[in-house]
Write a structure and sequence with these properties.
By secondary structure, this protein is mainly β.
Length: 110
């Protein structure tokens, strides 16, 4: 199983960013998948997940701002982030079946 995140970068507060996670060796519609983030102080926190049936769940801190979705045909997992705040600055990781990607840096700063 390999997971490769992309789409991170520098964005201003209030801005939006779309992250992708390309999966190989596992089907995005046949796995419990989601996103975590690691903050600059090295603490980690879950963001949310998408179940096999497509239902999603989010942490309160991102509810209404972040959206997890998937593209079954392309075997991609997405994280749509809106209204970004400086406290969203972190390395973002996707996970699936106990496997993790290498992470992509998101920096929210003016």
């Amino acid at each position: 199983v390999q997971l490769v995140e992309s789409g991170g970068g520098l964005v201003q507060p209030g801005g939006s960013l779309n992250l992708s996670c390309a999966a190989s060796g596992i089907r995005v519609d046949n796995a419990f998948m989601g996103w975590y983030r690691q903050f600059p102080d090295k603490s980690r926190a879950p963001i949310g997940h998408i179940s096999r049936d497509g239902s999603t769940s989010y942490q309160d801190s991102v509810q209404g701002r972040f959206t997890i979705s998937r593209n079954i045909a392309m075997n991609l997992l997405y994280l749509r982030m809106t209204d970004l705040k400086p406290e969203d600055t972190a390395v973002y990781y996707c996970f699936a079946g106990g496997n993790w990607g290498q992470g992509t840096q998101v920096t929210v700063s003016s």
